[in-house]
Each structure stands twice: as C-alpha cells, then as structure tokens.
Amino acid sequence: MSTWITICDTCKREDWAERGVPDTDGARLAELLEPMAEAAGLRTRRVSCLMGCTHGCNVAIQAGGKLSYTLGRFEPGAEAAAAIVEYAGLHAASETGQVPFRQWPQGVKGHFVTRHPPLPES
C-alpha cells in the first residue's frame, strides 16, 4: 500500500500578499517536497484546498488501512519539506500509521493539526 503526501497547493501564509511572491506558499512547498518524496519512494498529489487555511501550509499523510494525519503551519522551505518526507517515510514503515513521538523529526513537532482513523473496510 502506497503512502501519499497530499499537498494543498493553494495555501497562503498570512503575509503572502505583503511578500508579493507570485506562487502560493503551498505550491512552493510542493515544488520542494515532490522530488524528495519521489526519491524516498513516496507518492504525492496536489489538491486545491485542505480547508486548513488558518494553518497554511497544509499536507496530509495518508495510506489505506492506516491512521491519517494533517499537518500545517509550515514555512515553504527545504527544511520543512525534508521533515515532512522523513515523517511520511516513518508512517509508511509503520503497520498502523502511528509513529512514536520519540521518532518524529524535529521539523514536524508542533505541526500536527488532525488525526483520522482508517476507514472501515465494509
């Protein structure tokens, strides 16, 4: 079963307009995250909204039959992208999707927004 990193590419941090950058913060994070995820054997997809606007930049870590997590409040930089990919790799290696706190990369601590149980099989 593949682990997916779903990236909101419309996320804008509060100061986005003032910074005058052409790309959204979510799109900038996606551009950094996608090649790192591919190199780690993880799948990515972009979506137009994860409805976590007050938590931008948002990503969801998901895999069939496992706990899913939404993370947000990231700066759209290489350090955040690397931490997300590292955490997603740990999620992929976990039978349930739960990763012990002591194994979390420092870059994801404080960024968890929601946790969802796996969908029932029937």
TrEMBL record:
Pfam entry (one): DUF1636
Organism domain of life: Bacteria
Protein name, UniProt field: Metal-binding protein
